Automatic annotation (TrEMBL):
Transmembrane portions of the chain: 21-39, 73-95, 115-134, 146-166, 178-197, 209-230, 264-286, 306-326, 362-382, 388-409
Keyword Transmembrane helix attached: yes
Family as reported in the entry's similarity comment: Belongs to the SecY/SEC61-alpha family.
Localization per Swiss-Prot or TrEMBL: Cell membrane; Membrane
GO terms under cellular component: plasma membrane
Chain's role: The central subunit of the protein translocation channel SecYEG. Consists of two halves formed by TMs 1-5 and 6-10. These two domains form a lateral gate at the front which open onto the bilayer between TMs 2 and 7, and are clamped together by SecE at the back. The channel is closed by both a pore ring composed of hydrophobic SecY resides and a short helix (helix 2A) on the extracellular side of the membrane which forms a plug. The plug probably moves laterally to allow the channel to open. The ring and the pore may move independently.
Gene: secY
Protein topology in the membrane: Multi-pass membrane protein
Subunit structure: Component of the Sec protein translocase complex. Heterotrimer consisting of SecY, SecE and SecG subunits. The heterotrimers can form oligomers, although 1 heterotrimer is thought to be able to translocate proteins. Interacts with the ribosome. Interacts with SecDF, and other proteins may be involved. Interacts with SecA.
Protein's organism: Mucilaginibacter glaciei
Keyword Transport listed: yes
Entry-linked Pfam families: SecY (PF00344)
Record's protein name: Protein translocase subunit SecY
HAMAP family linked to this entry: SecY
């Protein structure tokens, strides 16, 4: 306990770190306050009985921190921004103009960010129309329908853009990745209610308190397994040649390149989840198509079809995002320039091919385990866990929580170590997603 208070004291002594943490808390507080501001022209008193929190609608509500069910100005959250980033990154593979922008360094990234913002406006406006049609009923509207729809499409679009701006400000002026922290805040906001409801249902039903304790133990095991996946690395030995500069000798030692088993972090889960919202969106715009069997299966988060497609998308996105964030050719070139080589492998193209082969091998089991964790809530629901609590029983929410918490703690530890303070742990170091620039990419992703 003394070590804990000493660490908090050290964090408070570093002015830059103290300011960043304070800014992060204030920005997240603004987001939480805004999530309780109801859309203009909506009868707030009639909302609770009109909202359903099951399936994908429940997941959207969780990511938005309850804003979706409250018809808040932040009801759509940052999901349109994530969808826009997916589209831009896919265009960066197939369209020459966007491929060129990706190679232009800082100026290219600024242009891509601008394109992402423009596309976010379009996607948000489309999703806002679908949201108002499906979630706002006639008895909850206090304004005439055409005026109500036009007004709130603008309000929802402005709300998403404001949340996006908050996320960017957290990244620049705060600690951690802003968009990820906003999503994590929304998830944590739903946790206490889910915990209390599950406790009440279990203690009042068969099995009693023992069943609830078993669930908590199983949840702890899933959390430990998730941490292992997030922090797992494959070390590649690198030998550096000896160099004599003046009277000093440099190199001649063996070091390691730690390649992460899950180099893509939480991005495959978020990307796949964003795409899985498409069937529900289509059903909102075309009510007649909602009776289609395939569309119904994909819209039901507990169906076998939905979880099979979800798992496949996660595996594909894991390979995709690892390919665009980890560059074996650049790693081989940097190694060659610094006089390093992998024992038994020729420098240059052979080294790049070797690193690429290792990444491909470790990405496969990593992506499969990631997919298993992501679909665990569906299996938890099958054994009787309530749908609200099952979302924390593995799945997207748990992976995001673990990844974002580790990443934020790692950044705090980096600030401490830079100022020659002890880290957050007495022994060892926190290995977050950004702790290895060669594996996670020097530039943080769009979320």
């Amino acid at each position: 306990m003394k070590k804990f208070f000493t660490t908090l004291s050290n964090i408070w002594k570093i002015e830059d770190l103290r300011l960043r943490i304070t800014n992060t808390i204030l920005f997240l507080l603004i987001y939480r306050v805004g999530s309780f501001i109801v859309l203009p022209g909506v009868n707030a008193a009639a909302l609770h009985s009109a909202k359903a929190k099951e399936g994908l609608v429940g997941l959207l509500n969780m990511f938005a921190g309850g804003s979706f069910s409250r018809s808040s100005i932040f009801a759509l959250g940052v999901m349109p921004y994530i969808s826009a980033s997916i589209v831009l990154q896919l265009l960066g593979i197939a369209v020459p103009y966007f491929i060129k922008l990706q190679k232009e360094g800082e100026s290219g990234r600024n242009k891509l960010n601008q394109w992402t913002r423009y596309l976010t406006i379009v996607i948000t406006a489309a999703q806002a129309v679908g949201y108002l049609r499906s979630q706002i009923t006639a008895d909850t509207m206090l304004l005439p329908n055409p005026y109500f729809t036009i007004l709130n499409v603008f309000v929802l679009t402005a709300g998403t853009l404001f949340v996006m701006w908050l996320g960017e400000k957290i990244t620049d002026k705060g600690i951690g990745n802003g968009i990820s922290l906003i999503i994590m805040t929304g998830i944590i906001a739903e946790l206490p209610n889910a915990f209390v409801l599950e406790f009440q249902s279990r203690t009042g039903g068969p099995g009693g308190l023992i069943t609830f304790i078993v669930e908590l133990v199983a949840l702890l095991g899933v959390i430990m397994f998730t941490i292992l996946i997030v922090q797992g690395t494959r070390k590649i030995a690198v030998q550096y040649a000896k160099r004599i500069v003046g009277n000093k000798q440099y190199g001649g030692v063996r070091q390691y390149i730690p390649l992460k088993v899950n180099a893509a972090g939480v991005m495959p889960i978020i990307f796949a989840q964003a795409l899985m919202f498409i069937p529900a969106t289509v059903a909102q715009f075309f009510p007649n198509a909602a009776s289609n069997g395939i569309l119904m299966a994909l819209s039901n988060s507990n169906s076998w079809g939905h979880n099979a497609v979800f798992a496949i998308l996660i595996i594909l996105f894991t390979y995709f995002y690892t390919a665009i964030t980890v560059n074996p050719n650049q790693m081989a070139d940097d190694m060659k320039k610094n006089g390093g080589f992998i024992p038994g492998v020729k420098p240059g193209n052979s080294t790049a091919d070797y690193i690429d082969a290792v990444i491909s091998k470790i990405t496969l089991p990593g992506s499969i385990f990631l997919a298993i964790i992501a679909i665990l809530p569906a299996f938890a629901s099958m054994v009787g866990v309530s749908s609200l609590f099952a979302r924390f029983f593995g799945g997207t929410s748990l992976i995001i929580l673990v990844g974002v918490v580790l990443d934020t703690l790692q950044q705090i530890e980096s600030h401490l170590l830079m100022r020659h303070y002890d880290g957050l742990m007495k022994t060892g170091r926190i290995k977050g997603r950004s702790s290895v620039p060669t594996a996670a990419g020097a530039t943080p992703p769009v979320i």
